[in-house]
Amino acid sequence: MSAVAGTASGAAAVRDALGAATAALRAVGVGEPRLDAEVLLAAVTGRSRATLIADAGAPLGPAETRLYGEFVRRRLRREPVAYIVGTKGFRRIELAVDSRVLVPRPETELLVEVALERRPGRVLDVGTGSGAIALAVAEELPGTEVVATDTSPGALEVARANASRLGLAERVRFEAGTVPAGEAFDLVLANLPYVAERDWAGLEPEVTRWEPREALLAGEDGLDAYRELLAPLADGPAECLRPTFSDQAGPLDAATAIAVEIGAGQAVEVAELLRDAGFGTVEVREDLAGIERVVVGER
Length: 299
Hints:
The protein is α/β, with parallel strands linked by helices.
């Protein structure tokens, strides 16, 4: 497959390149072939999608044509667009991403919204990955102290690099592990692995072939990571979850809280895990698709 089609003068026009790429991507089952074709070409040319569409007859240079062909071939192998172009937008920030971390999803923004509502003095982001949650909270709540952890050295490298590039390196402290010993936080946010082993084969190739398996799978029912996180709390309040206060404290800050992202159909079981861990008030929130996506516990 040629990713672009030549014009009479030998150059490739934007419309021809997009048309050929869209057809090829549709043929292999890519969900949004036209959008992906446009995003990839925008990355190659440095032009916005709107500019490309408005000037569809503009020619592409030889170097642009070759790079676009390479990008489209990678997408035909179902590599995620974010890995190909190297970045992914998340709320108000742009994150560098690669195969060491999950591609940030829009539904994960719900966890940031919990932090914005509560305006906590100290936040712990468990399983930070690319740093999306921690860095978004730091960027939008400049008075909040943020600590982020991950068990993957590669993920921490990506997250720290993102913090530095965004000018937030002094605002977020990254640590290896899960919960820092001897520290207290108002709010714990966690987007841990929650894919059940039995569901793995049914996921899109973009996930199963390219994203880090250890950041996705969590046992037979997908809840092992949350059981491990919450188990120490079941015997009583944990030191890491004492309320703290700040100058920006609001009416909800006096209550310790946790918010976790979950998979479809896991809300009832995760809510029960939170109650067993001492969170007497539990709320389930839906994403834009109407899927129960975040469970918030408070005590």
